[in-house]
Amino acid sequence: MDGEAKQCFCRQMSDAPETTLSPDELRRYARHIVLAEIGGPGQQKLKRARVLVVGAGGLGSPVLLYLAAAGIGTLDVVDDDIVSLSNLQRQVLHATAAIGEAKVESASREIGALNPHVTVNAHRCRLGPDNVAALVNACDVVIDGSDNFDTRYLVADACAEAGKPLVAGAVGRFDGSLTVFAPWMTRPDGRPAPAYRDLFPEPPPPGAVPTCAEAGVLGALTGVIGTLQAMEAIKLIAGVGEPLIGRLLLYDALGARFDVIRY
Fold first, then answer.
1. In this structure, are residues 248 and 256 in contact, taking their beta carbons and an 8 Å threshold?
2. Which distant-in-sequence residues (6+ apart) come within 8 Å of 121 by Cβ?
3. CA angle 71, 20, 108 (to 5 degrees)
4. Which of 107, 146, 201, 261 could form a disulfide with 56 if both were Cys (CB 3.0 to 4.6 A apart)?
5. pTM
6. Phi, psi values for residue 97, rounded to 5°
């Protein structure tokens, strides 16, 4: 993100009401606060922020855990599924005792146990055209951890329309990818930042890409990509570093290799 774009997003974040950190929060986030790039002001930004996480599964689990630990003030999580035994190989947010429970309810309980300073808004529903705009508009950053192309395109279009940064991740078997979309921002050369449909103009035909249940996925892979998604959201909110806007990060777990492609 160039300086002007970063300042633009930081101004959007600064519109939220001012907040202070309690003595308990100062101790909890001490390792953030000593970082010159974060400090007290950055931690206050995290506390003021509201993040929408689409999906409380393989990617959503590490995203929600690390954002809660980081002190994001409000987490909205949307998922209509229940916890099943086959989820537990990778969906580390949920315990065995949660089998049969709604994922958003399990997520709310575990987040509360990890950090009681975080407000969780649990939306047990399927994201669709009738509710996506309201959910996206209520938040500062959106993280897509969904597992189907219909939801990915729906979320991406809604974020572009609302002017909300989208952190998009995907996994399959032993490979993962990650990027950030903010198509209303301009790049240093004056061109707009790319949108989801610039990178993926059309969804693949139905059945062309095997599902996780059909192809399998290495459990720890979702932790790698989900944690990186949380990192990108924290960078966006705190206004530090260079988010993956216009860059696609590819991870090959078997080869232990990261590659970055500009697009």
1. no
2. 74, 75, 76, 77
3. 30
4. 107
5. 0.93
6. -65, -15
Residue 79 tokens read as: 């998922």
* Two tokens, residue 33: 């606060």
> Residue 237 is encoded by which pair of tokens?
């909110």
Whole-Å CA distances, 64 to 75, 92, 174, 225: 8, 10, 22, 13
Q: Are 247 and 260 in contact (CB under 8 A)?
A: yes
- What tokens appear for 110 in the block? 């575990």
Write down the residue that tokens 């999906």 correspond to. 55
Q: Based on the number of CB atoms within 10 Å of its own CB, is 175 exposed (0-12), middle (13-18) or buried (19 or more)? A: middle
pLDDT tens digits for 58-101?
999 999 999 999 999 999 999 999 999 999 999 999 999 999 99
Give, in degrees to the nearest 5, the angle at Cα 39 between 186 and 142: 45
